[in-house]
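User: Here's a chain of 279 residues. Predict its fold as tokens.
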Amino acid sequence: MTQTLKKAAVIGWPIFHSLSPLIHNHWMHEVGIEGAYEAVAVEPENLAAGVQRLVAEGYSGFNVTVPHKEKILPYITKLAPLARQMGAVNTVKVEADGTLTGFNTDGIGLVTHLKTSVPDWPKDKPALILGAGGAARAAALGLLLEDLPFVMISNRTRLKAEKIAEDIGRGRMTVVDWQDRNSAVAAAGLVVNTTTLGMVGQPPLELDLSAAASDTVVYDIVYKPLETPLLAAARARGLRTVDGLGMLVHQGAAAFKIWFGEDVGYDDALKTLLEAAIK
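Assistant: Prediction complete.
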């Protein structure tokens, strides 16, 4: 490749399943950027060498997915405020001098997709987040920035949920015992599943939505399948639903802007491409 070509990537382990190359290569073609976006498998024990190789080979930047989002922090020169608050990085920009700036666009992606899909979602009620991994942390921070009354979080291991509330809650997060998650639905204007439950090969998330108010929105960040058992149950009750594909796209759009300075979006052509790939 010549030096005029732009390169970006996503690193993770494993990484073969990633839809990010499809998304970013679509955008690069759309805005006329010559180059390519690749999925690069980087084993955890080879993270330092993998990062050094991307810098040496002239990549503009790269996305970071599991299991590297926290482990990459020692190699980052400068952290953007949201990444610092998150304690995790999903987007890295390689600066002109070879130093690395770390960002986290996961929460931005979730909230942007929520606002796009359901502009009138009930912000006067608390949200209920299920799970306590990196996606839960991103969802919590993104929603707290939207000035909700407070955010509830529930996880099978309560200590992990308490850690998130302690780290970023600032008195505006409350932990709900996993066995009490069904009763918490009644108070929530938004329910967000950040667990892998409901994903292909995983058991469904067991959540009773019978107490949900009619204006409650149910958001599942899982996108394989596109309609999870949770979303199907919510739709059957007449509740508004949001699938996880848009979060992936919108966090990617924020990363694309960081690397290339171009605004891109979730158009019909990209939606068709992604839905076909999932099926």
